[in-house]
Amino acid sequence: MKNSKTNSKTIEKEKVVAETINGRFAMLGLMAAIGAYLTTGQIIPGFV
């Protein structure tokens, strides 16, 4: 029987931080779109 090693990849801290910030800005954009739709009835206010 062969010795099986688990190859675990390490994730760089900078990538984790970048993805976290990216996700937060995406949620912020989603909330802004929902807020614009609720107040004006349009996804992009002023654009037909």
* Stretches with pLDDT under 50, minimum 5 residues: none
What is the mean pLDDT?
87
What share of residues is helical? 55-70%
Gross geometry: rod-shaped
Order of helices and strands: H
Task: Tell me the strand percentage band.
Answer: under 5%
Cα-to-Cα separation, first versus last residue: 68 Å
Number of strands: 0
**Largest pleated sheet:** none
Overall description:
This protein has 48 residues and is an all-alpha fold. The protein has a domain at 13-41. Helices cover 58% and strands 0% of the residues. The chain contains 1 helix and no strands. It has one helix spanning 13-40. It is rod-shaped and about 65 Å long. The mean pLDDT is 87.
List keywords for this structure.
mainly alpha, 1 helix, about 50 residues, about 60% helix
Brief write-up:
This protein is mainly alpha-helical and 48 residues long. It has one helix at residues 13-40.
